[in-house]
TrEMBL record:
Compartments reported by the entry: Cell membrane
Name recorded for this polypeptide: Peptide ABC transporter permease
Keywords, ordered alphabetically: Cell membrane, Membrane, Transmembrane, Transmembrane helix, Transport
Membrane protein topology class: Multi-pass membrane protein
Length: 349
């Protein structure tokens, strides 16, 4: 075998190793920056974590003992080092609100948010992308105007108001969906959590009645989230498509007599897939971190509701742990979007 192919393969593997190493270093540094931000925010906000533990009627001696035990008497660099070590060893402290470790709480509450946001982004993509394509292909028509109005409503309508209207109409009046919470109360606790995703766990347990009951409770909050997501996705899809439909290669395809459906979905839509990956990734991450209002309205036991309760109770370990997890998920989704970007676009490799 000649040395040229071997040398070429070595260069290829060298570039791949360098790319993977760069990816890992970037993720690590970004996560370390997130740790620094959450730590120092927790130290500058006007909430005393010691008082949250001992109460405002504790004596000075009890207060100082708790402060020393929590390590708050140490210099900030030492506290930050201990915080980083704790995070990388899976110790986010103990929640004052629940009495459990923050890691255990997050493992309980985050799957509910993940389940709702995942259904929401599926609705947003399945509905939003076709709406954006249709609006762009019929620019200026009444269909385009209606789709743009829907997008404007998605940007301007308050989430809590839409959730309350949905509950009043589809639950209280029409009885088409389930009420607040993830299940009717008599189903609660009948399925042992395996993944934390109630739809998956109920199917694994063979409890199909619980599965369908969970769907009736999930469909309304997920649809509200999906509405805001599809408004953004449809708007961006329309913008990307308008840019492609004005390109010369699209005009050439039309002049050659290529069917309009092929022109739109093959020639114009294919180039925007890479851009849509980034848009969908950002929208999904936004649903995961921005579902606080929806979870509050629907009494959804997710990470947003947990974070709100922690803030009201001055439970800083829970606040910082939740913020850190949401930020880490945001970083992860963005990096996955970058990887998919490179897979779909050869120019980025």
């Amino acid at each position: 075998m000649s040395p040229a192919p071997t040398s070429h393969r070595k260069r290829i593997w060298g570039r791949r190793v360098s790319a993977i190493a760069g990816f890992v270093v970037t993720v690590f540094l970004t996560f370390l920056g997130l740790l620094a931000i959450t730590f120092f925010i927790g130290r500058v906000i006007p909430i005393d974590p010691v008082l949250a533990v001992v109460g405002d009627r504790a004596t000075n001696a009890v207060y100082e003992a708790a402060r020393v035990q929590m390590g708050l008497d140490q210099p900030l660099p030492v506290q930050f080092f201990r915080y980083v070590v704790g995070v990388f060893t899976g110790d986010l402290g103990r929640s004052v609100s629940t009495g459990r470790s923050v890691v255990e709480d997050i493992s309980r509450f985050f799957p509910a948010t993940l389940e709702m946001a995942t259904i929401g982004i599926i609705i947003g993509v399945v509905v939003g992308v076709p709406l954006g394509v249709i609006a762009a292909s019929r620019q200026g028509s009444w269909i385009d105007q209606i789709i743009r109005i829907v997008g404007l409503l998605g940007y301007s309508m308050p989430a809590f108001w839409l959730g309350l209207v949905g509950l009043a109409l589809f639950y209280a009046r029409l009885r088409w969906v389930g009420g607040p919470g993830r299940l009717d109360i008599f189903y609660d606790g009948l399925v042992s959590p395996v993944t934390g995703l109630l739809l998956v766990d109920s199917l694994l347990a063979g409890e199909f009645d619980i599965f369908f009951n969970a769907i009736t409770h999930l469909i309304l909050p997920a649809s509200v989230l999906g509405f805001f997501s599809l408004a953004y996705i449809a708007r961006m899809t329309r913008s990307f498509m308008l840019d492609q439909l004005n390109q010369e290669f699209v005009t050439t395809a039309r002049v050659k007599g290529v069917p309009e459906r092929v022109v739109i979905w093959r020639h114009a839509f294919n180039p925007i897939r890479v851009q849509l990956i980034t848009v969908i990734g950002l929208s999904y991450a936004g649903l995961l971190e921005g579902s606080v209002m929806i979870e509050t309205v629907f009494s959804w036991p997710g990470i947003g509701n947990y974070l709100t309760t922690a803030l009201l109770n001055a439970d800083m370990n829970a606040v910082l742990g939740s913020t850190l997890v949401i930020g880490a998920v945001f970083i992860f989704i963005n990096k996955i979007s970058d990887v998919l970007y490179r897979v779909l676009d050869p120019r980025a490799r």
